[in-house]
Specification:
Layout lengths: L4 H22 L9 E5 L4 H17 L2 E8 L6 H14 L5 E5 L8 H20 L3 E3 L4 H14 L3 H4 L5 E2 L5 E2 L7 H10 L16 H17 L3 H29 L9 E3 H6 L2 H14 L9 H12 L7 E3 L3 E6 L2 E6 L1
Parallel strand pairs: 1-2, 1-4, 2-3, 4-6
Antiparallel strand pairs: 5-6, 7-10, 8-9, 9-10
Helix pairs in contact: 1-2, 1-7, 2-7, 5-8, 5-9, 9-11, 11-12
Length: about 350
């Protein structure tokens, strides 16, 4: 008799990713020994299911498997919980197993600050152990939430594309569960008698993602019927394909609109005007960032103001952008520079 369907689903998802990691490793000029894959585990159902599937599949494929848990220090007893997760990962026969404590700053809000600290710790652990990849337990439900958050920001196609299956330097981060729903990971833990920890922050309405999870998505499903989560996750993939194509087009366009290759902040107005709006705005955004505008502070309204210097020229003065960057029209050129 085979494993429970939920267990079979998570193992299959991990097996596919491990095959990809193995193929990438074998393609290296001089691969040495089996690759190491780490699982990032908080102790929640998604990451515990991921850890169990990795522990099962890795030995069968000749992959070394380890784990890491990050203590953000944001809740009473977090250090004890982190040690408990470490013990669970060790019990699954993962090796090495790391427990890392981080200091969470305040930049960009509590959710963003915690995420930045967590990824910095995961990057450091991967470098320290020479890991080929780090597995993350984001599910299809997480993807749907990310798409809704991107829709609310109104930041364009890229923000609707959600989380990539592969991301980070050299494809370090892998997300095997983006096609697996949260209910499946929880059921897989239950049938394997894996204890899980439910982070109270996930139910705290002070956090934007928590409100999306417990209020916005249930309301959408009530109004539109089941299938909203799956549809949003599918939208993420379609949007990512579109955004990738537009970015590739933008690479070529960016080179073609430079008035002088030695002056990357000076662009030819006529050539910019001839570009499709979606490509032109990407060129403008890239140029502003290259001039020193922080990407996280550069919003759609800033790009629209830059775009009007090209498409609706009425003698406007220079536009002030974040990071003390300004954009102005000078003759037949758009000049983007530090002010």
């Amino acid at each position: 008799m085979g494993p429970h369907p939920a267990v079979a689903a998570i193992r299959l998802a991990v097996r596919r990713v491990l095959h990809d990691i193995l193929n990438d490793h074998r393609a290296l000029p001089a691969p040495s020994g089996p690759p190491l894959t780490l699982v990032a585990c908080s102790g929640g159902a998604d990451s515990m299911a991921l850890a169990s599937a990795l522990a099962f599949e890795a030995p069968r494929l000749g992959v070394r498997a380890g784990g890491i848990t990050v203590d953000h220090g944001l809740q009473p007893g977090s250090a004890d919980r982190a040690l408990d997760v470490t013990a669970r990962l060790t019990a699954l026969r993962l090796d090495p197993v790391d427990c890392v404590t981080v200091s969470v700053g305040r930049g960009g809000g509590p959710e963003a600050a915690a995420r930045d600290a967590r990824y910095a710790a995961l990057d450091a652990a991967a470098e320290r152990h020479g890991a080929a990849a780090v597995l993350l337990g984001h599910t299809r439900d997480d993807q749907a939430e990310t798409v809704l958050l991107g829709l609310a920001r109104g930041s364009g196609t890229r923000s609707l594309s959600g989380m990539a299956a592969i991301s980070g330097a050299h494809g370090r981060y892998r997300r095997p569960f983006l096609a697996v729903d949260r209910q499946t990971t929880r059921r897989a833990c239950m049938v394997q008698s894996l204890p899980v920890w439910d982070d109270p922050h996930n139910a705290d309405p002070a956090y934007t993602r928590s409100r999306v999870r417990h209020e916005a998505l249930p309301m959408l499903e009530k109004a539109l019927g089941k299938g909203v989560v799956e549809a949003l996750a599918r939208t993420a993939q379609l949007s990512r394909d579109d955004a990738d194509a537009l970015d590739a087009w933008t690479d070529e366009a960016e080179r073609s609109v430079r008035a002088d290759p030695a002056l990357p902040g000076e662009l030819d107005i006529a050539r910019l005007y001839s570009l499709p709006p979606a490509v032109r705005r990407r060129v403008l955004r890239r140029t502003a960032i290259a001039a020193g505008a922080p990407a996280g502070s550069l919003f759609a309204r800033h790009i629209e103001e830059m775009d009007r210097l090209i498409t609706a020229w009425r003698g406007q003065q220079a536009i002030n952008l974040p990071g003390r960057v300004e954009a102005l029209r000078r003759g037949g050129r758009l000049v983007v520079r530090q002010s």
